[in-house]
Every structure is written in structure tokens, then in C-alpha cells.
Amino acid sequence: MWRYLLHRLLVLIPVLIGVTFASFCLLYVIPGDPVQAVAGERYDESVLEELRAELHLDDPLLVRYGRFLEGLLRGDLGRSYVTREPVLTRILVTFPRTLQLALASMAVAIVLGLSLGLAAAARPGSWLDRLCMTLASIGISMPVFWLGMVLIYLFAIRMNWLPPSGYGDGHPRHIILPALTLGMASAALIARMTRSAMLEVLGQDFIRTARAKGLHPWRVLVRHGLRNALLPVITVVGNDFGSYLSGSVLTERIFAWPGLGRYTLEAVAKRDLPALQGSILVMALAFVLVNLLVDLTYAWIDPRTRRGGA
Amino acid sequence: MKSNIILLLLCLLSLGCGNSGEGGDPAVFHNYLSEEPQSLDPAFAVDQSSGILVSLLYPGLFRFAADGTPVPDLVDDWQLSADGLIYTFRLHPDRSFDDGSVIDTDDVIRCFLRLLDPEHPSPRRWVLDGLKGAQSFIAGHSGHVAGLNAPDAHTLVVELETPFSPFLGLLAMPATRLYPAASDGTPAQIAGLPVCGGPWRLTEWHRGDRFLLGRREMGGPDNFTGLEFRIIPQPFTAGAEFSVGNLDLLQVPLTEVAYWVEGEHKGTVTRQEELVISYIGLNTERAPFNDPRVRQALNYAIDVEALIRTCRSGAATRAGGPVPPSLREGAPREQFRYRPERARELLAEAGLSAGFDMEIWQKENPEVSRILETVQIFLADVGIEVKIVVRDWGAFKDAINKGSADAFFLDWLADYPDAENFLYPLFHTSNRGGGGNRCRYSEPVTDILLDELRATPESDARRRLVAQLNDSIYTAAPWIWLWYPVSIQVLNPRIHSYQPPVIFNGQDYLEVTRDVALPTS
User: Which of A41, A191, B228, B489 fits a 20 to 30 Å CA distance from B136?
Assistant: First the structure.
């Protein structure tokens, strides 16, 4: 197990180098001049040249990439071209907020998704099944942008229960609406995955045996059924959690949530390459670590995968 | 499990219920910015959000009043020589930065030199490059600027290379704000709260989320003691925050004008024609836009009044040249009324009776897309097939500055309230590209008149020059003339004495008052 973990962690290094180099190349070739965001609406061409020299934008790609890696080894992600603040400082502020939102969204998704999936699988073909799957279909097909606006209208403007937006110094009530918005699509997917996996498991012999032993139906469903149906659900949870950690741009924008997604979006618009490069690195790292966590969870839930992996 | 879920939901609801009191301290004016400021360093404050905050936090020799007039800030008294070249400013002897250091002429010279210093290339260098000896300093031929002198600690003598009548406006811009030596954009300053000295001081900075400013000097009992600026990028969200009382001011989005102007809500609606012009720039170096007849045809082909009604909900005044009406005299120009038949005649005269294809570039913005889609229909009617090219801001700006777009939609916001700011940067040959002249207009006679305008002091002759330039450029039609936008704002009814500024940094909030609750017995 430990060898497996070490192996996976070592594999991270070339993956991250590949991601940073690929993104560096992409950012190098996309149109848009980074110094123009710094320069504003009116400037002299001579200032543009001086800014370009100051920011080392005239250096060849490999020199710039080498400088980035050198900084990375020292724990320095460089300075934003636009704000001149260290990129790491801003990421250390924005990433925890995105992590908070991702965790809350996944909590919503898991609680809602598993509940709907289990309820549907418990009575397949019944009105409850149809209701749960209809809700899941609605959840999958609702655009995040629209759902966010509807929730703001209902819970903030009409009922005045929750604040419409903002981080609110981390007060939990500020996270409820964005977490519901972001978690709804995942909840729908988890519900569908849970239902189909449960139906497959519930038809197997060991479930029949459990029922024959006279166990309570919920105990059969949850203890014996759900545990064996969890693997595909964990895959969905892992994928979605990884992508949420990469910043949920739309949700963060609608709810004025000052997370990594918004920071990255602004960096794209302003061609703020150090900010963008630092954000991509953190997102990639978060994504592969979550995937690693998912694989370890597989091994924990199903020892057969552990034996196979090691 | 079921009970756990119910418990969790109850917990969530109990945490969330009751949004009352979110507006917080009633002595704080709750405002917002749609973009995060790029920099609180005056030398790098090039965007509107930065300009607003920098103007509130740092003192300057002058500041803009809400009506756009430059009024003295640190300056106690000033004089201008008869030739319009030498300004002598007397500074208040008792103004200081928040660190206690008295603001004197050394501070002014230090900050002005930093703006010009090639070691710290500031995009706003152009603001002061007209000082005598500035070019020599920038080129490294001199260690000082000959036109900046301080006979004593509170007297500053500024000499210009050539007369420039809007000079006081330059001294009210964010770029010329003053800061103590410790707040020069160093990493330590960027990481912490900058030391300021303006009417407000920065008390809290939650990066990406909000700024809280505290009033520097006591006001009346009904004045605000704090200013909050939240970062809210989405107009719908800002509207929601205003609706629930978390904001005191809302910039009404164009799509919601009917609701806020005619609907039932708790707010006072104000309108203000800002010093802004919206236009479609035509690349005058490219065929067929190098032919004035084609450019005029495009202006005749578009019903701007209809666009204002449909795409701006009436919130604009049709443009009659580059200079907004409040900065010029004379009757409104109406040559380019909607006349598609005249457009077809002009196209035929230019040998384009079969029409042609063109691209109009825009930055990502749904409101602009709606406008250009309507323009597309008008132009198709006279045989011009328009392809709309949407790019993010970085790629869009790069393309239009390099002249690689046929045409582009853009707004120009005043840096200072003078007609020169709507003429010289936008149409002088020397400013082609990033200098502001993105339609790459080049007309020798216009250049001569623009140079003359800059050197002419405020007078009837100057006003005539402005009218002449405005009319000649209007007729030459390097742009499709659209409109001067009118901003619509909704104000919390508890707020009084708030005057919407005509220029983005023209409101210092010091005189704004609020309803104060009477003490209960």
C-alpha cells in the first residue's frame, strides 16, 4: 500500500511538469499582449517596451519557463503582471475559499444525491422512483447560471432568508446558496449513479441471503447494498470535487465569491501570465491529488482493488 | 440516516435564516465595484476601480468635484503666468499623511518624478510628460525635471514645455496623487494596507471581496464615517444586494432599466450623462474605410435613435461628434440621420454598389453583442455583410491597438473633463494605436488644429476651435457615431446630497448625508 502511494506521488512530478509546460506553451501562443492590461486605455509605445523589458516578456519561451521552474523550486510563483502582488499570496487567500465552497457543494451533492438514489432504488418503478429520477433529470439539465439566479431571487430577495452573495468573512450562511447551486448538478448525477449501481447490487445473491436472514430492509439497503454500490459513485464525487477545486467560475461570479475561479478568469482576461500559471498549477495539483484520494478510497472500500493495485 | 439528514438541513436553515442586519453599520455607505482594482499604486492605477479608490485614499494637488470641475485639494492658492506656462502652487501647511509626516513639495516632486521615471515604467507617464525637461529626464539625459521646482517646503513651481489649458485636470487624476515614501508600490506595501493621506483611509482590505474605508476627519452627525466597496462582478447580483438593503447605490444594468425606473422598489432613481462616448471605430488605414464616403455611408445606414430605444432602453443621447455636449458649444450635429437611401448613393459613388463584407470586433459583453447584432441588420439592408468577432479583452485590445480589425465597438471615458481629452488622444496622428487613436485617423489639418487647441488657454477662441474640430471630425466620420451614455443609478432613500459624478473619480462622499434615527426616549 505504501509503495503504491509513493509510486503515485512520484508520478505526480512529471504530470505537473507536463501540465505547467503545456500551459506555458499555450499561454505563449494565444493572442493578446499582457502589457496592454497593465497599460490601460492610453499609453506611449515607449512605455510598453519598457514594461515588456521589466516583465521579461521579450525573453524566449524556454528562458521564461526555466525562470518559472526555478522560482517554483523556491516556492515562488512569481508576481502578477497586473497587481504586482506575489501570486502565491493571492492563491493562499483564494484557494481556501474555493476549497470551502467545493466541500460544501460536495456535502450537498452527496446528501441529496445518495438520498434520492437510495429512495429510487428502494422502490424501482414506483412513483417515488419516478419522482426522484425526474428531480435528478431536472438537476442535471439546469444551467448553473440560471439556478443561481433563481435561488438568489427566491431565498434572498423574496424570502430574505439568506444573503444574495459575497464571502461574508466566511460566515456559513453565505455559502449555502452557492453550495446548493454548485452541488445540484452533482447531486443529480450521484442520484442516477446510485440508483443504477444499487439496482445491480440488489439483484445479487448476498442481498437475497441478507433478506432471507430477516434483516431490516433499510439495513440491507444501506449496509449491504450501498457499500457495494459506492465505487461508481465515488468516481463521480472525485471527478466533480476535483473540478470544483479548479474553481467554479460561473458560481463564483454569480455569487461574488472571491475564490480561485474568479481570480483565474480575471487573469485570463488580462493575460496575467504568472497569475494564470500559478492558478493552473494549483488546480492541476488539486485535481491529481483528489484522484489519488479517490483511488485510495477504492482500495479502502474494496480490498480487491488494493491487491490489484499493489 | 434520515434523522441525520433532517438535522443537517435544520442546521443549515437555522444558520441561514434572517438576513436582517446584513447592511451592517448605518454610518457606512455600502457601495460596490464591478471589477477588482488592479492596483492601489497611483502610478499604476489605470482602470476605473483603481482610480476610484486611489482618489479616495490619496491626496492630490487638485481633485474633481462631482460636476467634473478640478477644485483645490492640497493647494491653498495658485497662480498661472500670463504666457500660460508657469503654475505656482501654495500648499496647505497643515496637511499630513496617515503616518504623521507633513505633506510638502518634496513629496510632490518625489511622486511626480516616479511617474516619469523609466526605472518604474508607469503607463500614466503621459500625464506629466509635458513638463519642461520631462523628456530629457525620461531619456536619462538629466537627473531632474527642469520644470519642477520648490522654492520652499510649501511652494511648488511647475513649468510646462508648451501651454496646456486642461493642466489642472491632470493634477486631479489618480496618477498624480501623492503618497508617503513608504507607499511606493514595494512588496511590503502591496501586502499590507497602504499608508494614505486622502479624505478616507483604508481600514480593511479583504482581497477579491471588499474594501472598507474610514473617514479621516470627523464630519457632521449625518455624514458617513465609513465607505464599503464590495467586488460584485454580476449586475444581477448587485441588483439583488440592493433589493435586500445591502447596498446603498446601484448602477442599473441596461436590461433592468424598465424594472428600476418604472417598477416598485425602495429607491430613488437618478440619471447622469457621463463624460463618455460609445462608438464603432473604423480602421481608416484599411480599404474601403479609407474612403470618407464609405464611412459616411455607414453612419447614414444605422438608425442610432432606434438603437438607443431598443438596446439602451433610452439611456443615452445620440452622439454629434466626439466631444460630449457639456464640453462644447453649438447646436447638436444631425447630419447623419438615418437615411439608408443616402448610404446606398454614397456606396455607389465609392464604387461599392454591390456592397462588401466587413468585421466588427467586440470584447465579450452581452449588451454590446445585442447592439452589434442590430447594427448587423441595418448594414445588411444596404448590402454590407457584417461578421461580429467576439474576443476576450486581452485579445480584443491587442487587435485594435495593432490595427488588425476592420472596425470595433468601444467606449472612451474622460480622464479629465476637457474637450481636448476627447480629441487629441483619439484623432491626432501621433496617438495611433495604444495612444487612443485606434481608428488610425490621420489628417494633417486636424493635427495642426489639435496642437493649437492644446496650447490655447480657455477662451472664446478655444471654444470655437473645439466646435470646429468636433464638426470636421464628425463629418469625416472615422467612427460610426453612436451615443453619449446616460448612467441610471438607484439610491437608497436614506441617502441624501449624493450627486452622481460626471467623471468616475468625481465623488469623494464627504458631503453625502443619511437619515439619522432619532434617539428613543
Answer: A41
The pLDDT of A234-252, averaged and rounded, is: 86
Closest CA to B391 of A271, A22, A260, A51: A271
Averaging pLDDT over each range in B64-78, B217-231, B252-266, B321-335, which range is the top one? B64-78
Of B322, B319, B275, whose CA–CA distance to B416 is shortest? B275
- Which neighbouring-strand residues pair with B96? B102
ipTM score: 0.88
Return the CATH superfamily for domain A96-309. Answer: MetI-like (1.10.3720.10)
Q: Quick check: A89 and B425 CB within 8 A?
A: no
Contacts of B354 (CB under 8 A, 6+ apart): B383
Q: Which of residues 28-87 of A touch B (CB under 8 A)?
A: 30-34, 36-48, 50-51, 54, 82-86
Write down the domain spans for chain A.
Answer: 15-73, 96-309
- Quick check: B1 contacting A, CB < 8 Å? yes
Residues of chain A neighbouring B236 (CB-CB closer than 8 A): 149, 152, 254
In tens, the pLDDT along B408-448 reads: 999 999 999 999 999 999 999 999 998 999 999 999 999 99
- Tell me what pLDDT residue A228 has: 81
Task: Specify the amino acid at residue A137.
Answer: S
- CB contacts under 8 A, B 404-433 vs A, are 412-413, 415, 425, 431, 433
Could you give the 3-state DSSP secondary structure of residue B262? helix
CA A241 – CA A235 distance, rounded (Å): 10
* DSSP3 helix / strand / coil % (chain A, rounded to 5): 80, 0, 20
Mean pLDDT over residues B255-281, rounded? 87
Average the pLDDT over B451-465 and give the result: 91
C-alpha cell at B63: 481633485
Q: Per-residue confidence at A100, pLDDT binned at 50, 70, 90?
A: very high
Instruction: Determine the pLDDT at residue B192.
Output: 65
* Number of CB pairs, chain A paired with chain B, less than 8 A apart: 188
**Number of helical H runs and strand E runs in chain A:** 15, 0
* Cis omega (within 30 of 0) for bond into B59: no
Assign B261 a pLDDT band (cuts: 50, 70, 90): confident
- Does B393 have pLDDT greater than 90? no
- B425: closest CA of chain A, how far (Å): 8
Sign of the Cα pseudo-torsion (A142, B388, B412, B502, in order):
negative
Rounded Cα distance between B187 and A79, Å, is 10
**Mean pLDDT across chain B:** 89
Contact yes or no for A179/A105 (Cβ under 8 A): yes
Cell triple for residue A141? 439539465
Q: What is the mean pLDDT of residues B16-38?
A: 76
Q: At what angle do helices A173-202 and B2-16 cross, to 10 degrees?
A: 160
Mean pLDDT of B246-273: 87
- CA pair distance A47, A265, nearest whole angstrom: 26
CA of residue A49 relative to chain centroid, distance = 39
Cβ–Cβ contact A134 with B under 8 A: no
Taking chain A, what is the end-to-end CA distance rounded to the nearest angstrom?
A: 6
Residue A137 reports pLDDT greater than 60: yes
| Cβ under 8 Å to A: B residues 371-400 | 391-395, 397-399
Residues 6+ apart with CB under 8 A from B304: B318, B319, B336, B338, B481, B482, B483
Q: Does B401 touch chain A (CB under 8 A)?
A: yes
